[in-house]
Amino acid sequence: MSIDRAHSAGEAAEDAEERGRLDRVRPIPRISIQAFCESEGVAGPIEKAGRDRRMVKAHLKVHLGGIRAAVEHFGSAPTPNLVILESRQPPEELVAELESLAEVCDPGSRVVVIGHYNDVQLYRDLIKRGISEYLVAPISISDVMGVIGALFVAEDSEPLGRTVAFVGAKGGVGSSTLAHNVSWSIANLFKSDVVLADLDLPFGTANINFDQDPAQGIAEAIFSADRMDDVLLDRLLARCADHLSLLAAPSVLDRTYDFTPDAFQSLIETAQRGAPAVVLDVPHAWSDWTKNVLAQADQIVLTATPDLANLRNAKNLVDTLKKLRPNDAPPHLVLNQIQIPKRPEISASEFCEPLGLTPVAEIVFDPAAFGNAANSGRMIAETDQKHPAIEAFHHVAHVLTGRGEVKKPKRPGLLGRLRLK
Ligand SMILES: Nc1ncnc2c1ncn2[C@@H]1O[C@H](COP(=O)(O)OP(=O)(O)OP(=O)(O)O)[C@@H](O)[C@H]1O
Ligand SMILES: [Mg+2]
């Protein structure tokens, strides 16, 4: 292996570890944070943490100038919920500097110190003086977010479910079909609750695919966002199967839907408090609200069929999501509706190479099986128990829930294709 490749492999491993640590941090509440740094090496990760999706509610300001600048600043300004201070001073001087801060710092504010001395005695001394945590530089984004999470995400707060947004690279590629079948897999394989929300209000198909016709659903949830709570949400959910509830779209055109960028936020947060998995079936559209839902989701599944338009759109989505979610893994790519007879197709390797992704599943075009399931309002696993796509749905369910990777389903070969005839 060349040095460059070895280096990038090392970086990738670090990236994965850093992402794993970040993954354990749950959204930070609406708190105010001010950081006073002395070096770019410390200010950088704090600023990057401030731009992370899990920190959208928090207000973070980073200043330079260290403890001295903080003392000056808080002499005339109220202290925030959290003050982060960097100091390059040796232990004794650091403690002396902190003494001067005590006079201007509100006792209700938490203080985290980032120092350059790895000294247990100093650590103990600081904790005794009421400092909430002492970190030693260099620090990473996950160090910053981990410490904020530990201080402000209450330990006894209810566990939050994970959100997965499913989106298609183009209309009609089967993103909703995948979202519904994978939701069913998660509920069935792990006997763990899933809330599936159909975000395609005018045209959503979850109601058809699960043979449900609830009188109320996601429209009521969105238009009652100001009084959204678990009781209201419970009332709007339609039970589809054991452990699987649906927030159905009205799928009528009696009005138009121009949502505000945060229209879905309180609904998603409420659903997360009630179920370990919240699946968001996002329509193929690009607006402030779809962009926000994708930016905020814990994970994204991008479905594409292997043609040029899908490739271009997938590339644009992957690149844009990278900018919106710099500290997250890229979306999971599913290639769907492959091997349509006589349709020229870009090979999986050619399709995936420019995206820098390996598909998590490849699903053959099988109009009979998918059509039957859709027409009878059931999932493929209920209508055709030996269908190869089921293994793909189960695999995606395993990957999304982190429950150990099942063997990656093989790319369907000749026998698989003959079976379709
Ligand atoms: N592998 C497949 N083989 C055959 N048909 C499929 C396959 N996957 C999905 N379909 C069918 O393709 C159609 C479109 O699927 P679906 O509604 O899930 O796509 P979508 O990406 O959500 O579309 P939209 O852009 O409308 O949201 C449906 O009729 C579905 O049954
Ligand atoms: Mg859809």
Overview of this protein structure:
The structure is a single chain. With 421 residues, this protein is an alpha/beta fold. It has two domains: 27-152, Rossmann fold, CATH 3.40.50; 162-420, P-loop containing nucleotide triphosphate hydrolases (Rossmann fold, 3-Layer(aba) Sandwich), CATH 3.40.50. 43% of the residues lie in helices and 17% in strands. It contains 18 helices and 13 strands. Strands 8-9-7-10-6-11-12-13 form an eight-stranded mixed β-sheet, with helices on both faces. Strands 2-1-3-4-5 form a five-stranded parallel β-sheet, sandwiched between helices. Strand 3 (82-87), helix 4 and strand 4 form a beta-alpha-beta unit. The protein is elongated and about 75 Å long. The chain binds adenosine-5'-triphosphate (ATP) and magnesium ion. Magnesium ion is lined by residues 175-176, 200, 283.
Identify the CATH homologous superfamily of the largest domain.
P-loop containing nucleotide triphosphate hydrolases
| Overall radius of gyration | 25 Å
Tally the helices.
18
CATH architecture of the largest domain, by name, is 3-Layer(aba) Sandwich
Query: Could you give a short account of the major beta sheet?
Result: 8 strands, mixed
Instruction: Please tell me the overall pLDDT.
Output: 92
* Helix percentage range: 40-55%
Cα separation of the termini: 46 Å
Net shape: elongated
Class of the largest domain, according to the CATH hierarchy?
Alpha Beta
**Heterogens:** adenosine-5'-triphosphate, magnesium ion
Please give the order of strands in the largest beta sheet: 8-9-7-10-6-11-12-13
Structure summary, number of beta strands: 13
